[in-house]
Specification:
Blueprint: E1 2-5, E2 9-14, E3 19-24, H1 31-48, E4 52-56, H2 66-75
Parallel strand pairs: 3-4
Antiparallel strand pairs: 1-2, 2-3
Length: 76
């Protein structure tokens, strides 16, 4: 079941195996858009509490900068 379809990220939940599958459908154009999508993922994961999370990164070509890497470590 699709639980999120954002500008760059699609998140599906498979209840029978308690799995979130996050697929980047395109690369965000900047750090702010990347962070927004990660926050959406975090909110959904905290609400559903899946036992498995899979990230499909095929379409993600965004280069994460050092400031955003630090932000991810501290917030996600």
């Amino acid at each position: 079941m699709e639980v999120y379809n954002g500008p760059h990220l699609i998140i599906k939940y498979e209840q029978e195996c308690s799995r979130l599958t996050s697929t980047w459908k395109s690369s965000p154009p900047n750090d702010l858009e990347y962070r927004k999508e990660l926050i959406e993922h975090l909110n959904i994961a905290q609400k559903i509490k899946p036992s498995q999370i899979i990230w499909l990164l095929e379409s993600l070509t965004f280069k994460v900068g050092d400031v955003t890497k630090k932000w991810v470590d501290e917030n996600i």
